[in-house]
Amino acid sequence: MTFSRADLPEGFVFGTATSAYQIEGHRFGGAGPTHWDSFAATPGNVVRAEDGATACDHYHRWEEDLDLVRDANFDAYRFSTSWARVMPDGRTVNPEGLDFYDRLVDGMLERGIKPALTLYHWELPSDLSDRGGWTNADMPGWFGDFAEVVARRIGDRVWSVAPINEMWCVAWLSHFLGEHAPGLRDVRAAARAVHHVLASHGRAVEALRGAGVANVGAVCNFEDSRPADASAGAAEAAARYHAIYNLLFLQPLTGGGYPDLVLEGIGAHLPRGWEGDMKAIAAPLDWFGVNYYTRRNIAPNDGPWPHLHDVPGRLERTAMGWEIWPQGLKATLELVAGHVDVPIYVTENGMAAPDEVHRGEVRDPARIDFLNRHVDCARAAMDAGVDLRGYFVWSLLDNYEWALGYEKRFGLVHVDFESLERTPKTSWHAMRDALRRTP
Ligand code: FCB
């Protein structure tokens, strides 16, 4: 790495991240079925119809995996609780599920790792999705109950909590663009999902505070959206994209309400009485998390609202086809710093590459370069005044990359999905050296 721990302020937190459904293996430990299982079983939704039944078998190999976090000298580990493991039908507690997270949190503490908890990283219990999932106005109540159950069991030992990972993906990607479970393409469903996801966040924050949990934040995803050319139409389309992608959740969470450019499209479809929820949605937070991967070049089109599409850019791309644009991380951190007055963390950043094991080694120089360039830009944002307190690499392990199945490898550690063997990549070794603590 071109940086080391010493280049960052004392106390800056380096971490790595995963999520429950992507690594645990959902056929184990009494977890209930989720909408990702049924989405994946529907032909055409997921590459090779792969699902999270086995994933990385982290449910059985968590000790080895936490050793990998510790041995790379990370300070924190961002993980998530599966709602369907804790409450298989979304409402009834599975003690085995809670026991698992209890062991996991203790395992982190024994290794000197800060547990950074996300309550929901996308595996909705099927019973709730059969009731309309995020489009159902009862979701905030159910989610608040789930938050409370988790808080009462492990809330005393976690370092931080965020209720919902990437609300844009939960609501928009899944109900408007149809790319993630439940795979809807319906503006009315999307509007309701947007609002119920935000209201659920608010309800969870209340439940967490009520249970005495400290350090509660939110994690949103951002892209640096730019006009694809110099035309006025492209500038307008990019502004709409920016409002939908970057402001739709950030603004309500920080008391600014829904952006006008989004209300244009969804205002008529929001659930009745939505205005009454906005105060709880903007409840004060202790920190704000930024997930950042790429930029988008936006052009207008004649299609239905929001009348836009993204145009492939000319920068180097990752295996996801995402342009590598570290400068966008600085711009994003500055954008967020303009809305929040709490510490900011980069809660996800990383890249997929077609990594392979050769003679026991996995060489991934492109990932090392990617991480170096993004940490540089994060430092530049700090120099420009952003109160950035930490940086988490996505991901510890190669894992289930949702609709793209197991093919897109984001890990610092390679996983052989046949033998489930873990092989630290050169990026893992480089992080370990960069993060070594000098005595
Ligand atoms: C983010 C998700 C994470 C992973 C990365 C690549 O949007 O939070 O689960 O899929 O992208």
Bound ligands, each once: beta-D-fucopyranose
Oligomer class: single chain
C-alpha end-to-end distance: 20 Å
- Please provide the ordered H/E string of secondary-structure elements: EHHHEHHEHHEHHEHHHHEEHEHEEEH
Query: What general form does the structure show?
Result: globular
Output mean pLDDT.
Answer: 98
Structural class: alpha/beta
Low-confidence stretches: none
Let me know the number of strands: 11
Radius of gyration: 20 Å
Q: In which range does the helix fraction lie?
A: 25-40%
Quickly list its features.
439 residues; binds beta-D-fucopyranose; alpha/beta; 11 strands
Give an account of the 3D structure:
The chain is α/β, with parallel strands linked by helices and 439 residues long. Helices cover 38% and strands 15% of the residues. The protein contains 16 helices and 11 strands. Strands 1, 2, 3, 4, 5, 6, 7, 8 and 9 form a 9-stranded mixed β-sheet that branches. A hairpin with a 7-residue loop joins strand 6 and strand 7. Helix 14 packs parallel to helix 15. The protein is globular and about 55 Å long. It starts with 12 loop residues before the first strand and ends in a 5-residue tail after the last helix. The structure holds beta-D-fucopyranose.
